[in-house]
Design brief:
Distance between the termini: 11 Å
Order of helices and strands: HHHEEHHH
Low-confidence stretches: none
Helix content: 40-55%
Number of helices: 6
Strand order of the largest sheet: 1-2
């Protein structure tokens, strides 16, 4: 209702509502474990965090600090990277490859080849995603989507296919 009456205030109130749900989730998880779990000085712990300040996505990480980087082989496939944003001018689609641990783990497949080129691929993908909006005219939206898919195909041919990996874009538009 507020999105119709006063749209600038609705995003702020939705963010506050999501933050309240996130804080309730965080408190509920922390209260689930007894005091012995938190006082135990072993190297296992739990962390609740969110992706970005808009709190669209929350992560629950179970950390085992007894393992080192040498024990880590590679990420398990398939990996799902989630886009944030609503596809509007104020909130464009975005893949947070700097803060998303799954996107960062892609460089562990082959560090020599992917480490220098993967950030450039994601930067260009974010540029194309920021233009993509389903609120545009149909022809322009299809063209922007086509450009995005073509860029993913270029990434598949040059980056991912030599490693026997394929990137696929799944996009679901949820309008309410």
């Amino acid at each position: 209702m507020l999105r119709i009456i006063f749209p600038p205030l609705s995003d702020y109130l939705h963010r506050l509502n999501r933050m309240a749900h996130y804080n309730a989730l965080q408190d509920g998880i922390y209260e689930t474990f007894d005091e012995d779990f938190w006082n135990d000085n072993t190297s296992k712990t739990i962390r609740v965090s969110s992706a970005g300040s808009d709190v669209h996505l929350a992560y629950i990480d179970f950390l085992d600090k007894s393992k080192s980087k040498l024990d880590y082989l590679a990420p398990k496939l398939p990996i799902t990277l989630l886009l944030s944003g609503a596809g509007t001018f104020n909130s464009p689609y975005l893949l947070d490859f700097e803060g998303d641990s799954y996107a960062k783990s892609l460089a562990c497949f082959n560090k020599e080849e992917l480490k220098p080129t993967l950030p450039l691929f994601f930067e260009n993908l974010n540029t194309l995603l920021s233009k993509l909006s389903f609120y545009k005219l149909k022809h322009q939206a299809v063209k922007d989507l086509s450009d995005t898919i073509e860029w993913i195909d270029v990434g598949n041919r040059s980056l991912f296919n030599p490693l026997n990996v394929k990137a696929t874009l799944y996009m679901f538009e949820n309008s309410y």
